Amino acid sequence: MKIAVYGRPFNDPSVIPYIQQVFDNLTLHGVDIYVHHQLNEYLQDKITNVRYNVLQSTDSLKGFIDLFLTLGGDGTLLDMVTVIRDSGIPVIGINFGRLGFLASVNKNDITAAIHAVVNKEFTLDCRELLTIDSQLKLFGEDNFALNDVTIHKRDDAAMIITHVFLNDEFLNSYWGDGIIISTSTGSTAYSLSCGGPIIFPQSNSIVVTPVSPHNLNVRPIVLPDNSKLCFEVESRNSNYLVSCDSRVAVLDATVKFHVQKADFQLNLIRLNNESYLTTLRNKLLWGLDARNY
Q1: Which of 80, 121, 166, 211 has the greatest number of CB atoms lying within 10 Å of its CB?
Q2: DSSP element (H, E) containing 281
Q3: In degrees rounded to 5, what are phi and psi of residue 86?
Q4: Residues noted as catalytic
Q5: CA trace torsion 184, 189, 190, 192 (10° rounding)
């Protein structure tokens, strides 16, 4: 079995023992380990008694790597999506961050999680992505998002007006700081913090959530995932921000673009002892009485 490991450099040295534990367990199970070149640079002289191969950006992944394992938080897993792209390689994240909706494996459960992965004791949770297109070829070949595409004013700018068209029919004009176009996966991220609904991954939906709307009658709207959304933005500052997960571009107000469902999905690994509901309950502390008596 060939397992690739991806991660960002860590500022906190306390994670090193957990990283060592990951590699020790992979070695114990006789796995062929491949480390992404970015993580390999960080790991030099930090872990011991581990043999692995370095995965270069030019290496072909599809049909070669069986599974990707990320070390970090949800942001790390989102970054990794641009590495595996449409290869269909299953992904599991070990959470060294805070909340961890996507990277759902607790760092204290590393041994059990790797045992389950190696013995294929898991199911695949297929997650939809969004793609953004314009004449400018925004974000190049990485023009897809697992969480959301956002339109936002510049830090020093007044509010912007975003005109939205749904399947070529005018939907609404949003006055405010911007809007979020979120997948069901991203519904528990930025969209949730702006008052958007939680959407189950199997709902086949996307949500448009306004950011600090000037009009109080404007609310998030849930749309079918086969919708095509087109955008025109007005800004006093002549430009604004567009993000595609963690990637950000500055656009001139004359640029028009559209967002729709991507033609491929991400295969997120769910261990047999977890589900989307258990993740929600654990991360959002549902069902717990946190009051002080």
Answers
A1: 80
A2: helix 276-284
A3: -100, 25
A4: 74
A5: 70
